[in-house]
Amino acid sequence: MTEKQKGLTLVYTGDGKGKTTASIGLSVRAIGQGLSVKVLQFIKSNKRTYGEKISLEKLGVEMIQLGEGFTWTKTPDVHRNALKSAWKIAKETVMSGKYDVVVLDELNNALAIDSFPIDDVLPLEEVKKLIASKPSHVHLVFTGRNAKDEIKELADLVSVVNVEKHYYDEGIPAVKGIEY
Hints:
The protein is of the alpha/beta class. It has helices spanning about 20-30, 50-60, 75-95, 105-110, 125-135, 150-155, and strands spanning about 10-15, 35-45, 60-65, 100-105, 140-145, 155-160. It has a six-stranded parallel β-sheet, with helices on both faces. The termini are far apart.
């Protein structure tokens, strides 16, 4: 395998809207080129319906919500248990070599949690090890705000999405088909 063919690590981070959207666009592109894709969402709950999940399923892509929703809506223990389970699934998925592209949506957000202990259920050192030891063909995609510097250093691409103007500031709530 030449250097140009190796699996890449891509990070979409920043405070602006569009990080998950970028990873979904990349997933659609990969599917179009015959690559296999799996998307794991670390914070979003399976108790809600997301447009991207509906669309990707129509394309034959499995997208799994492994979280419990916003971190302020449940107890820390509920989130910790969900993140511990999500991390186990993520490692198994990446290391299986079954997928060409694995999106770990909102993993950056999870790693940045500071309202309760996170490192014992989602250790940064293990995330770094996963990047370094993933099968050579696997493209690994991380999304979410507050990407850790250590992750950005290991990445082949870091795109920072910034917000210049947002309709939330005008009091417009989440819009179906735009936010979810």
